[in-house]
Amino acid sequence: MIPTPMSILVVGSVALDTVDTPFGSADRVLGGSANYFAAAASLFEAASVRMVGVVGADYPMADLDFLAGRGVDLTGIEQAAGESFSWKGRYHYDLNSRDTLWTRLGVFAEFQPRIPEAFRASKHVFLGNIDPVLQLDVLDQVESPELVACDTMNFWIEGSRDALLKLLARVDLIMVNDAEARQLADEPNLLKAARWIRERGPKWVVIKKGEHGAMLYADERIFFVPGFPLESVYDPTGAGDAFAGGFMGYLASAPTIDTTALRAAMVYGSATGSFAVEAFSVDRFRTLGIGEVARRVDDFREMTFFEHDTSTIHG
């Protein structure tokens, strides 16, 4: 018997990126949190991904056909008059830092998420990096999801803090990078910052550290997964959203969301995030299959597993 796919609603940006790195460049290619998330989450057969976002009249909608071909429901993508959200950035040599050269919000500036009726009963919800006021509005439109996860950034932490704190009380999981966690909690120690965030509502906190991996804080336990070592890295844009997509995509196939499932989701998320950086835009996902993801998960296991009898050192 084939299990019923788990519905995952993602609400976020659907953008056009122009990216310069020391290893190449790309002009007006698919970007945005919703695109990267959906590209990763839709790799999992148990995930039925639904996208909500807005684009302008200039958006190359045909470029999203590969997502539709993998079962992603794009009926929540609104095409409005005007130009699409676009961004240009230049990465430094180590790819850990970048300069934003310009940001053009276009129709995204007036984005008011309208969740289609057919999407409102989605079991899992991922709130991409948008204004927390809009994230709260999305939660007012959905019907009793089993899992709500969100992302945010320093801009919202500084400028919409009150709304963000209200959001924390309504989500199960938050994904932030290390700098954002410290800023949100006003605490330099990541363990204390994670505890502060959990006390505001989320049961689980994921802190991403780029090429250095990610950490899961649940109860008083910590689980760490390293970044996957790669020889060829072209574009780190969207790696965090691809991590989130792999994380949520894996949970869609888990019989229950417990510590074991969350730890496995961390590894699958790290795997999909690592594929994102191997090409510009979402191009690596166009030909990627779940078998290749599973093999990379096996590589993670091989890199981190060891057997050791502590009695040999203390009798």
From TrEMBL:
InterPro entries: Carboh/pur_kinase_PfkB_CS (IPR002173), PfkB_dom (IPR011611), Ribokinase-like (IPR029056). Residues 28-281 form the Carbohydrate kinase PfkB domain. It holds the Pfam family PfkB. Keywords: Kinase, Transferase. Gene3D superfamilies: 3.40.1190.20. SUPFAM superfamilies: Ribokinase-like. GO terms for molecular function: kinase activity. This is PfkB family carbohydrate kinase. It comes from Gaopeijia maritima.
